[in-house]
Design brief:
Helix content of chain B: over 70%
CATH architecture of the largest domain in chain B: Orthogonal Bundle
Number of domains of chain B: 2
CATH superfamily of the largest domain in chain B: RNA polymerase sigma factor, region 2, helix turn helix motif
Distance between the termini of chain A: 43 Å
Number of helices of chain A: 4
Strand content of chain A: under 5%
CATH topology of the largest domain in chain B: Rna Polymerase Sigma Factor, Chain: A
Strand content of chain B: under 5%
Helix content of chain A: over 70%
Number of strands of chain A: 0
Order of helices and strands of chain A: HHHH
Structural class of chain B: mainly alpha
Largest interface: A-B, 25 and 45 residues
CATH class of the largest domain in chain B: Mainly Alpha
Number of helices of chain B: 8
Structural class of chain A: mainly alpha
Largest sheet of chain B: none
Low-confidence stretches of chain B: none
Oligomer: heterodimer
Chain lengths: ~100, ~180
């Protein structure tokens, strides 16, 4: 339903425009607002997401390199490498979940 | 008065680059309207209305990144302003009567005409929501749909506030 303006509406609007409160000029208003503006904290969102994606890519490449290797003899180095890579991958995967839980 | 494109450019500069000079231009452009809305909502309390208008702009600065551009910037700003006024009134209601600061006397006795005093008395006789609807609709010429967005109320409620306010104001102003 559209609200069309009646004669009374127009009379009231006219009265209000002529007689309602009208603020005087205040040249200090804008400078005062600008002086009170707080510093905004820079968002860490974008750099954090870029770092996270880079970590995911590095993990993925490392696992691809690991899978491409031949394991005729398993050395201690292979075991350590696999364990470290597994731990780092787990950390990278858990990071967003931990961040989400901390926010909640 | 800023054009739509200028306004969008300034909002983008503030939101993306925290550009204070662009925000100062927005404050300068919108402060007369926001201050007038606050002055009428507070029934002429100049100090309180300027404080509330100032808080409105500070909150707008902090929330600019959340401005999606779905509504116009002025609607968004009015919405922050109305919320600020509403929160102030709620805080005041929760404060015991003795602890409340005395409202500043409006400087109207010397300059206001009898007709102006009548209009101001009629405004003062309205409830807060009714006064807000009347101010936004008659002074700022905003459509009821926008007022509903600003006040976060259903359109029907805004219409009934306006209907009641009109009845009271007509009784006080137009029947003499």
């Amino acid at each position: 339903m559209s609200h069309s303006k009646s004669q009374e509406d127009l009379k009231l609007a006219g009265l209000m425009r002529r007689q309602a409160y009208e603020p005087g000029d205040n040249p200090w208003f804008t400078p005062r607002v600008m002086n009170k503006l707080p510093e905004k904290k820079r968002s860490r969102g974008v750099p954090a997401v870029v770092c996270y994606l880079a970590a995911l890519v590095v993990c993925g490449l490392s696992w691809a390199w690991w899978a491409g290797g031949t394991f005729s003899v398993i050395t201690v180095r292979d075991i350590v490498y696999t364990a470290v890579l597994g731990a780092v991958t787990a950390l990278v995967c858990l990071a967003p979940i931990v961040a989400l839980l901390r926010r909640v | 008065m800023l054009s739509k494109i200028e306004e969008l450019k300034l909002v983008a500069q503030c939101a993306l680059g925290d550009n204070r000079r662009a925000f100062a231009t927005l404050v300068e452009a919108y402060q007369p309207r926001v201050r007038r809305m606050m002055l009428n909502l507070t029934c002429g309390d100049e100090y309180l209305s300027d404080d509330l208008a100032q808080e409105t702009f500070i909150k707008a600065w902090l929330a600019l990144r959340s401005f999606k551009g779905i509504s116009s910037f002025s609607t968004w700003l009015y919405r922050i302003g109305y919320n600020e006024f509403y929160s102030h009134m709620r805080r005041q209601r929760e404060t015991p009567l003795g602890d409340r600061p005395l409202p500043q006397e409006a400087h109207e006795s010397a300059v206001a005409t009898e007709a102006a005093l009548d209009v101001r008395a009629a405004l003062a006789s309205l409830g807060e929501a009714e006064r807000a609807v009347v101010t936004l609709h008659y002074l700022d010429d905003l459509p009821l749909k926008k007022i509903a967005t600003i006040m976060s109320l259903p359109l029907g409620t805004v219409k009934s506030h306006l209907h009641r306010a009109k009845g009271k104001m007509q009784h006080l102003l137009l029947t003499d």
